[in-house]
Amino acid sequence: MSIELILQFMVEQWLLIAALSTTLTLLVVHETRKAGPALSITEAVQLVNSENGIFLDVRDAADFARGHITDAKHIPAAALPGRTGELEKFREKPIVVVCKMGQTAGPATKTLRAQGFLRAQKLAGGMMEWDAQKLPVVTP
Predict the structure, then answer these.
(1) What is the tens place of the pLDDT at every residue in 93-118?
(2) Mean pLDDT along residues 30-58
(3) Which of 22, 40, 45, 46 has the fewest beta carbons closer than 10 A?
(4) Which 3 state secondary structure label does DSSP give 25?
(5) Which residues have CB under 8 Å from 86's CB, separation 6+?
(6) CB-side exposure of 53: number of CA atoms within 13 Å?
(7) If you ran DSSP here, which 8-state letter would residue 92 be given?
(8) % of the chain residues with pLDDT over 90
(9) The dihedral of CA 119, 121, 127, 132: what is its sign?
(10) What is the rounded end-to-end Cα distance, in angstroms, of the chain?
(11) Residue 32: pLDDT over 80
(12) CB atoms < 10 A from the CB of 53, how many?
């Protein structure tokens, strides 16, 4: 497919292109507002280490058992609303929420923030990104 054909399509279908652009922009804004900006792995590690925060892994038990970040606290996302009391000593500390790909961490972070854990943030890319960067994990 040539560049000319793509440009011709964009000119002829400008309304579709505008609608797509608007939709993608609104999606990004919504996801960012839902749980705040995502931390990169480097930012997350520095934040947890410098301020005695924790990684909170919200994946299911099987995924957690296959490998998780050292010293990560495990509370599955479905159980999080009823188990935030386990995080009470971290209320004023950074909590970096980790899931498989970064999708579940957003709603979990929103739940934590609604319950007063205002320093909760999600990890961009989740464990897939952690693994892709070949960072250490605890395995059985």
Answers:
(1) 999 999 999 889 999 999 999 999 99
(2) 87
(3) 22
(4) helix
(5) 73, 75
(6) 23
(7) T
(8) 78
(9) negative
(10) 50
(11) no
(12) 19
By the 8 A CB rule, do 80 and 58 touch? yes
Whether 51 and 92 have beta carbons less than 8 Å apart is answered as: no
Distance CA 54, CA 84 (A): 14
Task: Report the relative pairing of strands 95-98 and 73-74 from DSSP bridges.
Answer: unpaired
Cβ–Cβ < 8 Å for 53, 113: no
Task: Classify 37 as helix, strand or coil.
Answer: coil
Q: Per the structure block, which two tokens stand in for 97?
A: 């929420």
Query: Cβ distance 94 to 51 under 8 Å?
Result: yes
What are the tokens at 132? Answer: 């892709």
